[in-house]
Amino acid sequence: MNAKSTISRMSFALCLVLFTSSSLAAVVNEKPTLRGLLAKINTLQASFTQVVTDSQGKPLQTSSGNLILQQPDRVYWQVLIPDETLLIANGERVFYVDQFVEQVSIFSQKDMVSNNPLMLLTSSDDEVWEQFSVVKQDQAYVVTPVNNEGQITQLTLRFVEDTLAQFTLLDNQGQVSQFILNGTVLNMPLPVNQFSYAIPEGFSVDDQTQ
């Protein structure tokens, strides 16, 4: 092997090492980058449209409603069409309200995080974030539970000029739920009771926190 060939091989090997190292560093750094983007969102108010498709890409359902987020750990998720449902997370408990059957289900918010990475949007808890890995693909952040036992197996977040514009949930049945946010308003004050909920008289209660 001549000297020129040896140098070429060494150069190629060095480039390969540098490329691999930089790629690994990028993967490692995606979680802090995503957390930094989300930390800029003190509050978020938006309407949304949702399209659900099956594992073959066939449309199953379309819905729309409103989403309100507040740091830390507050979520108000209201579906208006086709059926009215409401999810309120107040930092400790999650209320899921089905207006049609007049039922309220109550969950521990801490337990909900492992099944729903969407809760990460308002979480600054290091222990919570340790339950997920984050990589960047096609200018989107892909969040995957480390312990892949929940219903949601992947959350993909897309930002436009540092503003959350779209997110997609993939469940363990292969169904994909794509949400597009519209009319987003950031960091405006919210009513003090925005994430409070009083159970209506006559509604049945399924309290999973007991």
Quick overview of this protein structure:
The protein has 3 helices and 12 strands, in the order H-E-E-E-E-E-E-H-H-E-E-E-E-E-E. With 210 residues, the protein is of the alpha+beta class. The protein has one domain: outer membrane lipoprotein receptor (LolB), chain A, CATH 2.50.20.
Q: What does the secondary structure layout of this molecule look like, with pairings?
A:
Blueprint: H1 3-39, E1 43-53, E2 59-70, E3 74-81, E4 85-90, E5 93-98, E6 103-108, H2 109-115, H3 126-129, E7 132-137, E8 140-145, E9 152-160, E10 163-171, E11 176-186, E12 204-207
Parallel strand pairs: 6-12
Antiparallel strand pairs: 1-2, 1-11, 2-3, 3-4, 4-5, 5-6, 7-8, 8-9, 9-10, 10-11
Global mean pLDDT: 84
CATH class placement: Mainly Beta
Shape: globular
How many DSSP H or I helices? 3
| Annotation, overall tally of beta strands | 12
Oligomer: single chain
Work out the strand percent: 35-45%
Number of domains: 1
CATH architecture label name? Clam
Q: Under CATH, the topology is which? A: outer membrane lipoprotein receptor (LolB), chain A
Low-confidence stretches: 2-28
Main beta-sheet annotation: 12 strands, mixed
Give the CA-CA distance, first to last residue.
74 Å
Spatial order of strands in the largest sheet:
7-8-9-10-11-1-2-3-4-5-6-12
Q: How helical, in percent, are the residues?
A: 10-25%
> Which radius of gyration do the C-alpha atoms yield?
21 Å
CATH superfamily: Lipoprotein localisation LolA/LolB/LppX
The helix/strand order is: HEEEEEEHHEEEEEE
